[in-house]
Amino acid sequence: MNPDTRAMIAAVAFASTTGKTVAGLFDHAAGRDLRVAAERRGDQVQGFDGERNVAFAGTLPEIHDDGSKAFVSFTIDGEQVRGFDRASGAHFEARVGDGVVQVFDHAQSTWFAYDVQDAQATSSYLRSNS
């Protein structure tokens, strides 16, 4: 699975499970901030990937990524998210908790971690300091 798709999945998973807006992500594998934002309103999710200058949006369980021109499906169960990326043909899992999203890419057989940036404070992340 492409790293841009994993970042989009992390943003959608966080916004969808918490109802909070994602203002950006810190990608631990890449060691850098990503300009990826997302929000959920009802079953509608919309977002923007500033790294690729493309939007992603849709009605859950299907989100269309304008960058890959493909749909990504999401099944949400509490803080657990599972799905399938049609562009790569890869399944994924995501776990959301304490301002962090972990995405398991089955094609890579690897976990990827993202800190979620708080929409209200552009320089802070949602992880608690306790």
TrEMBL record:
Superkingdom, taxonomy of origin: Bacteria
Protein name: Uncharacterized protein
